[in-house]
Design a protein that fits this description.
The chain is α/β, with parallel strands linked by helices. It has one domain: NAD(P)-binding Rossmann-like Domain (Rossmann fold), CATH 3.40.50. The chain contains eight helices and seven strands. The protein has a seven-stranded parallel β-sheet, with helices on both faces. Strand 5 (about 130-135), helix 5 and strand 6 form a beta-alpha-beta unit. It holds the Pfam family adh_short_C2. GO terms for molecular function: oxidoreductase activity.
């Protein structure tokens, strides 16, 4: 794969960090998008000379066009956008306020649309590009206490298909990865506080273990590569069989 210009959102930890690391190790220029300047700077230092800082709070939609222009002006192009950033909230549905619901959708859905639209404009000029969205098992089946997160990730899968159809004639592919239960701080926090739920996770995962962030990074990297040139609009579960387990 020739050197690409990549943006990974939410790249300072978890799946985003592993994905940014994968692209950097392969020799690509990766813009590490994070909202905390100190963490973003620290991440870039860890990832090495291929990493670039891009400090942005994605909930501030008005700042997104300027950030994308900043990358285009500095790098000359944008080849890959990985929409990984997301927030969660565990709370009974009947106690979730409108403001809390909207806050989740603002970061997990609205910002994905906005940054994809802006990066898509650049990719259209180039005649090629790749967008990879990150969904969740919460979009595959009903999970209690995460109604806003589930709604946002279900919408991401529909957005992926709609974008893929519309952007394909412009040389832009759009795909989605739906991680299962992966060893990250967010997953540990959710499962360790709910042992019965943790038992159910392992009981219905045929491979009998949780995945690693690198499993998601490898899948994203493949979907953004020329080896996946004829793949667009797919939602690919990477879950050890959890979504089809019984």
């Amino acid at each position: 794969m020739k050197q690409k210009i990549v943006i990974v959102t939410g790249a300072t930890s978890g799946l985003g960090y592993a994905t940014a690391k994968k692209f950097c190790q392969a020799g690509h220029i990766c813009y590490v998008l994070g909202r905390n300047p100190e963490k973003t700077r620290k991440t870039c230092k860890e990832l090495g000379p291929q990493a670039r800082e891009l400090v942005l709070d994605l909930s501030r939609l008005e700042d997104i066009p300027g950030a994308v222009r900043q990358v285009q002006e500095a790098a000359g192009r944008i080849d890959v956008l990985v929409n990984n950033a997301g927030i969660n909230m565990k709370k009974p549905l009947l106690e979730v306020s409108d403001a809390e619901f909207n806050q989740i959708l603002q970061t997990n859905l609205h910002s994905v649309f906005s940054i994809s639209r802006e990066a898509g404009k650049v990719m259209k000029e180039q005649g090629q590009g790749n967008i990879v969205n990150i969904s969740s098992m919460a979009a595959q089946y009903g999970l209690p206490y995460v109604v806003a997160y589930s709604a946002s990730k279900t919408a991401i899968e529909g957005l992926t298909r709609a974008m893929a159809v519309e952007l394909a004639p412009m040389g832009i592919r759009v795909n989605c990865v739906a991680p299962g239960f992966i060893k990250t701080p967010m997953t540990a926090k959710a499962l360790d506080s709910d042992p019965p739920r943790k038992d159910r996770v392992f009981a219905r995962t045929p491979m009998g273990e949780m995945g690693l962030p690198e499993d998601i990074a490898d899948t994203v990297f493949y979907l953004a590569s020329e080896e996946a040139r004829f793949i667009t609009g797919v939602v690919l579960p990477v879950d050890g069989g959890n979504s089809i387990g019984f």
